[in-house]
Design a protein that fits this description.
mainly beta, single chain, about 45% strand, 18 strands, 18-stranded antiparallel barrel
Length: about 475
C-alpha cells in the first residue's frame, strides 16, 4: 500500500505541474436550487415523545464503527420544517485535454436555531461549502489514461460498495440523508481499453492530526468489461478501507481494516428485461474501540435484481430485488470471526425511513443498530408515466435480521424477533418544464415484532420538493 500511495503522490505532483500555463478554451456556469418541505411523525418509533429518543445506558456494544451518530434531539410528533440546497458549478475546459470542475454549495434548514446538535449554529446557516474541486487530465502521460485529482464524486457500478460519502460539515440540516455533499478527496486513474475499463482510486477520508496512526485511507481497484450484446456488463473489484481513525486513541495498537473482494454481472435477456447480481466478501480486522481486541472479519453481501419494462404508452416498469448483508450474534467477550457486514459507503437507499434509523435518528429500543448490516430484505418496485411529464413510482420493502439480536447485548439473554418490519415509499414527479421539477414523496415504515411495545409506532414522512436546474 505504501508503494501505491507513493505512486499516487508522484502522479499528483506531475499532474498539477502540467496545467500551470494552460489557457481557458471554454467556461460553463451551471447550478441548481432545491427547496424541500418536510412533515415527519414518530421517527423514534414512539408516540407522544416530543423530547426525542435516547437509548438506555445498557445498550448493546456498538457493532458498526462509522463516522455518523444518531440524533438525540429529533422530535417525534409532527416535525415540520423547510430545507434549501443551492449549488453553483463552474466547469472550465483548458488546453491539452485539461479540464477543471468547482462546485460550491449551501445547504440549510430555514432559520433553524439549533439543528441536529444542542449548539446554536445560526452563524453557519449561510456558509458556502466546497463540494467539488478537481482537475481532469485526459491522455495523461499515456494515451488510454485519464487522471482525476481532487475533491470528486466516486460511484462504481450500482454503488453497492462505493458511492456514498454523506457530509453536513456545518451541521445546518437535520435530514442528513438528503445532503448533496457526497464527495471524496481522491486521486483516480482511469485506463480505457474499450471494452475494458480499469479504475485505480486512492482517497484520504480522515487525516486527523497528520499522524499515520489515526488516519483512514481507501484504496479501490475496479475492472469493468462491457459486452457487445444484450447490454451485458461484468466487473470485479478490490476495496481496502484502512481505518485507524476509529481506534485512534490506541495509537496503532489495533485497527479496523476492512478488505472487500467482489463482482457484479448484469444483462438484458430480452429487450424489455434486465437481470443481475452482485456478490462480495469482506475480510480483515474488526475492532470497535481503542484497546479492544482485534477480531478477524468474515462477512458477505449479496444483491440479486430483475426488472421488466412493459411496452405501453404509460411506460410501466416493475422490478424485484433481494439484498443480504451478513450479521453477527453480538456477545460480550467472543473472539470468533466478526461476520457483521460493513457498508459505510453504500449508495442505494433501502427505505427512506428505515435505512437511517440508528444512523441519523435514534429509536428508543435498546440493542438495535444502524441498518446496512445483519439484514436481509426483499423489495418490489414499479413506476409508470400516466401522462406526459408526470411519473408515479412506489417501492415496497420487507426487512428481517439475519442473526438474533439481544437487547442486553449478551447472547445468553432472550433475543428479539427477526421481523424488522415493512416500508412503503411512494413518489409523484411532475416536470413543469425542462428546468423545473416538482416532487412529492410519502413514505411509511411499519415496525414488525422486532420492536417491543411502546417502541413500535409507525413512522411517516411527507416531503415536497421543487428543483430548478440552470
Amino acid at each position: 500500500m505504501k508503494l501505491t500511495k507513493a505512486l499516487f503522490v508522484l502522479a499528483l505532483a506531475l499532474g498539477l505541474a502540467l496545467p500551470a500555463h494552460a489557457e481557458t478554451q471554454n467556461v460553463k456556469v451551471s447550478g441548481s436550487i432545491d427547496i424541500y418541505g418536510f412533515y415527519r411523525n414518530n421517527f423514534d418509533l414512539q408516540k407522544s415523545n416530543d423530547s426525542g429518543a435516547a437509548d438506555a445506558a445498557a445498550a448493546a456494544p456498538a457493532v458498526q464503527a462509522g463516522d455518523h451518530a444518531a440524533s438525540q434531539t429529533h422530535r417525534s410528533e409532527g416535525d415540520s420544517y423547510f430545507m434549501g440546497i443551492t449549488q453553483l458549478e463552474i466547469d472550465a475546459d483548458l488546453t491539452d485535454g485539461v479540464s477543471t470542475v468547482v462546485n460550491l454549495i449551501n445547504q440549510r434548514d430555514w432559520n433553524a436555531d439549533v439543528f441536529d446538535t444542542t449548539t446554536a449554529n445560526t452563524a453557519e446557516e449561510f456558509d458556502v461549502i466546497l463540494d467539488l474541486a478537481y482537475v481532469k487530465l485526459k491522455e495523461a502521460f499515456y494515451s488510454p489514461l485519464t487522471l482525476t485529482i481532487g475533491r470528486q464524486d466516486l460511484v462504481f457500478g450500482r454503488g453497492f460498495i462505493l458511492g456514498w460519502n454523506p457530509q453536513d460539515p456545518t451541521t445546518t440540516i437535520q435530514a442528513d440523508e438528503f445532503t448533496q455533499i457526497q464527495s471524496f478527496d481522491a486521486i483516480r486513474g482511469t485506463l480505457d481499453f474499450n471494452p475494458w475499463t480499469v479504475d485505480l482510486v486512492y482517497s484520504k477520508t480522515n487525516e486527523n492530526s497528520h499522524d499515520p496512526e489515526d488516519d483512514r485511507d481507501l484504496y479501490f481497484t475496479n475492472v469493468n468489461y462491457k459486452f457487445s450484446e444484450r447490454n451485458a456488463v461484468a466487473e470485479g473489484y478490490f476495496f481496502a478501507d484502512l481505518d485507524k481513525h476509529t481506534t485512534a486513541s490506541a495509537a496503532g495498537s489495533n485497527n479496523n481494516d476492512t478488505y472487500t473482494l467482489g463482482g457484479r454481472f448484469q444483462y438484458d435477456p430480452i429487450a424489455q428485461g434486465t437481470l443481475g447480481g452482485e456478490l462480495a466478501y469482506q475480510f480483515g480486522n474488526y475492532s470497535n474501540a481503542a484497546g479492544a481486541a482485534d477480531r478477524d472479519r468474515g462477512a458477505w453481501a449479496l444483491d440479486l435484481f430483475g426488472e421488466y419494462r412493459i411496452e405501453n404508452p404509460w411506460k410501466p416498469t416493475v422490478g424485484i430485488e433481494y439484498v443480504y448483508l451478513s450479521g453477527e450474534e453480538v456477545t460480550a467477550s467472543s473472539s470468533e470471526s466478526w461476520s457483521m457486514w460493513r457498508g459505510d459507503f453504500r449508495l442505494p437507499v433501502y427505505g427512506w425511513i428505515h435505512d437511517y434509523l440508528e444512523l441519523y435518528y435514534e429509536t428508543g429500543l435498546v440493542g438495535d443498530y444502524a441498518s446496512g448490516q445483519n439484514q436481509e430484505h426483499l423489495s418490489l418496485y414499479g413506476s409508470m408515466v400516466p401522462m406526459e411529464d408526470v411519473k408515479l413510482s412506489a417501492n415496497y420493502f420487507y426487512f428481517r435480521t439475519v442473526e438474533p439480536v439481544h437487547p442486553s447485548g449478551l447472547a445468553g439473554s432472550s433475543s428479539l424477533s427477526k421481523d424488522i418490519g415493512h416500508e412503503l415509499d411512494t413518489a409523484l414527479t411532475y416536470a413543469y418544464s425542462e428546468d423545473v421539477t416538482f416532487t412529492f414523496m410519502a413514505n411509511w415504515f411499519i415496525p414488525g415484532s422486532f420492536y417491543t411495545s411502546g417502541m413500535d409506532s409507525r413512522a411517516s414522512e411527507y416531503l415536497s420538493e421543487v428543483k430548478v436546474v440552470f
